[in-house]
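Hi Y.,

Following your request, here is the sequence exactly as I used it, all 381 residues.
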Amino acid sequence: MKRIAFAGILASALATAYASAPEPIENYDPLHTPAPQAQRANQGLITGIAQHGEHFIAVGGFGTIIEFNNPANWQQREVPTSVLLTAIHAVDDEHIWVAGHDGVLLQSTDGGQSWQMRLDGHQLLALEYEWLQERQIELEDAIENAEDEFEAEELEFELDELFFHIGGAEIQFDVGPTKPFLDLHFFNREVGIAVGAYGTMLRTTDGGSSWSVNNGAIDNIIGNHINKLVVGPDGELILVGEAGLLARSYDQGETFEMLDSPYHGSLFGALFDDLGQLWIYGLRGNVFVSGDGYDFEQVDTNTRYNLNAGTILNDGRVVLAGHSGTLLVIDPETRALLRFEHESSSPLAGVRQMSDDQLILIGRSGLLTFSLPAVTAMHGI
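Below is the corresponding structure, written out as tokens. Let me know if you'd prefer a different format.
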């Protein structure tokens, strides 16, 4: 079975003890066990954050969803699952989606006050298994009708990989769902896409009432993990993932154009700055920036720590966050870079700006804050 190497912070963070983890019980099923209410939920593993109006909503371990306008003043919401939640996306003032492990997709239609399960791992497995069987028939027909030996060999390689995934799915029927979603994005209330481990990609056009498997939309035969989705100023959708996976869609994720990646290690995140430039980043401190998605320039970060998340400050600067509390503040025009480290030295999974000089950080140590020094007081590396 392939190794499990989920996006950035997740792999190492799963081993961290959560302050209010439920006591082991017989036949405990985290998929359909409500999240425990914890006095220190803000100090447990937090993996995703989104701004919702004047508030922030963060998600994390054991089904935790907390809402706050100040990290010291937060409220935990009731959630119908206790699996690790990985990502959150606010569509509008009312509609919010959350992705998680074991094939979980949650939705709120009242601005995050209440949450409902819209998909679970059993349903995901059924969807993917049906798609795999249909794809097997398509490939076998294509091999039989291949125009030459080279084309047949390519198709046979794809079929061999498909059999690997079919075998994995059959094992899952016995052991139960385990596949995580790692990110999701809704273009509006109706059209959305969710992605995750082993090349999983689902798409909906009816607000999540039904989902279709879209794994074949990108050239990802071996099933590299899809770690992050980001939408650009012109509405283009960028996805990044394992082994330098990089693709772009102009039709809301229905089809994709594969892009030549400047890096063949794992990419954990991407963002567009105020200049319209695409930034991609990930393993071992690697950062690249492009004005068109084709030609990339590497940014010298002088760090080997994984970079897992990023945001754009109000003044247009790029902030990237990663392992060991690493924070990079980069001028998008000059590429001048300033490096800081949070006092916790904790792996970071997300960053947002709370005020002009205050950042909210999330990660293994829960909700954290960081005060940015005045620009005139900062020194480069």
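DSSP finds three helices and 27 strands in the chain.

Thanks again,
Q.
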